[in-house]
Amino acid sequence: MVDTTFLAFPTSFANLNTEISLYFCDNCKSETPDIVEDYARGDLICRDCGYVVSDRIIDEGADFRNFADSLDDNSRVGYTADPLLRVADLTTTISYQPSTSSSSTTGSNLARQQSKINTSQSNKNLISGFSEIERIADHFAAAFYYASRQQGMTRTIAEIINVIRVSKKDISRCMKIMKSRLPSDEMTTKSLTTDDFVSRFCNNLGLSKDIVKYSTFITNKLAELQVMDGRNPLSCAAASIYFSTKLYGIKTTLKMVSDISGITSVTISNNYREMLKFKQSLLAPNCQNLKSKLEMLN
Q1: Are 20 and 47 in contact (CB under 8 A)?
Q2: Three-state DSSP class for 45?
Q3: Transmembrane ranges (predicted)?
């Protein structure tokens, strides 16, 4: 039987649970004891003399495991306290599983009543205010998108989402509301083309006017050949810019074009390889000096 009359006391109260080396062995009385914890038995053992320094150590680690490929969170603690809400104490939440049974209906009613009781009037006003702000932001994003399209400004929904921080679903919902309630002539917008994005992307990449002109020629030639029909204009513009920079020998990587355009490198690469199939048709008439470089593209 293990003698537990001699318990180890830490030489310092700092980091008691993490600094195991601060424990002192009463048996060998070493100044620098080598003490390890046996997690299976809950013992602290001195490896210098084999003495059990302390037993029945409480494991303060988690009693569950979360796996990377699992969406379930096994933690049984609640969320952190919200400083914006006055009632931030620990509470019990009544949950229920939606179904057609009577027990589910009872659980739903209990959860609804508990929500009414636990939510104070000031918190209700605060939550209502934030909901109204979200609603205004959704409508503003939709209105901004329509205004930019009417003024011929090349702004995509993805760019608006990154700035205003609203969901695409909410913008689409607000756009449908605007279409149904506003006159049709006020909701007329210009369709986006690849030319609308080429100059802006080239400007952001710091490319010359020659690249802008050649990229525009490529997009117009592809539209004439009907090669890239049905593809995203953004991806076609990005691939045309990458094609032109390769032709002119300018060091521009797929990642650089991807960061500016918001199109993945894989999509740009696939469109670029599709263009290579028609590269003989993509030589501008006033750029015959680039014919040898065009044939070397791969």
Answers
A1: no
A2: strand
A3: none
